[in-house]
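During the practical work, I worked with a single protein chain and the tokens that describe its fold, as given directly below.
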Amino acid sequence: MAINRTSSHGEWSSRTAFILAATGSAVGLGNIWKFPYITGENGGGAFVLIYILCVMFIGIPIMLAEVYLGKRGRLNPIASIKYISEKENRSKNWRVIGLIGILAGILILSYYSVIAGWTMAYATRAAFGVINNIDAVGATLMFNNFVSDPERLLAWHTIFSIMTAIVVSKGVKSGLESAVIRLMPALLVLLLALVIFSAIEGDFVGGVEFMLYPDFSQVTWKTILIAMGQAFFSLSLGMGALMVYGSYLSSDISIPKTCVIVASLDTLVALLAGLAIFPIVISSGLEMTQGPGLIFQTLTVAFGAMPGGQLFGTLFFILLIFAAWTSSISLIEPMIIWMIEKYNLTRIQAATISSGLAWLLGIGTIISFNVGSEIKIFNMNIFETLDYLTSNILLPLGGIMITIYVSWLISKESINKELNIKSNILRYIWYFSARFIAPIAVIMVMLNALGFSIDGVL
């Protein structure tokens, strides 16, 4: 059977290594600012409950399907699905799922690396006391001057690209695993330290109430759609990363148990991030704006005005660097494995070409904030176009196709043998969720993101 094949690229040394790698892939910059913010704005604890249900019935079913494909195929995303399709007597055209994942990963990395470069620049500024006693006007001016300088952005983007390339060029155990088993525990330690600092210096009670107090009056159908979308995107679904990571799993590791742990850790990190950020923001009397403004302007002012802010501000931006780094190596890995198998390249060659391509595409994002801001594609700048294409089209499309392919077209015998869900009730829940709930939910999220009103449907 295909499930007993051994990956030609190596394997994780343990289930813990896979859990840390998959969690690292899921935990990114969005977890640090987006999840806490949308939680507070959409009912606090009520939103958390809805989000957890979405993770259970949308995120985890798709995650199981994606990891299953990787573990059974043991090849790059395109070749894995081609191989499985041959065994299941299905059309080889389904391999387009793998192509979508590889394309989405490299496009996301191209602009993700630029934003990650910002965190490196701000970590340096915090460490040298540049943000000490800075006010809102000064923080805004500093940020605007920074992003308007293409040469400076290019330098940090290049450094981060090289960091990513170095890790992935070393292979599964020496590169990916070695990185995540160091970075993820360090990330958790930094996050806990920031939560403690926030509890001491910030308005911790106010932060907890903002994030976790259940206000069901704010819950609307729009809230549910936001929770659905966050559950899908937060777990790094549809971009081929989990498929590749699954191909490095040994045959004796349980996919369901492992995926539940990964989803739980991802949610925990997002909640802790909120507990670290919002007490500081609230105690400083600052506006909890969404997006880069929260990280690079609002929090800069907050840390700059607090006792110990220089140290903990530096630690915060280092935390962001770690989160971005673990995500970036998962974004590029699918393309690297595809190039190795397709063109018989060495891992160093494939890593160099893949990271070079992402670096080159990233120049488009860099100029979107300065000299190329007037360049518009469908009334969006280059960065906005890449973000829209990947977030609203490629990733949802890949997720929908993965869950339909696995739950409808793969034999139940093969799935049951690999997933090994012993409880008939849990097995039924997974099939029902994967076949109906997850695809419909992701389609709704996709249509909503594309601007189609589905109020009539709901």
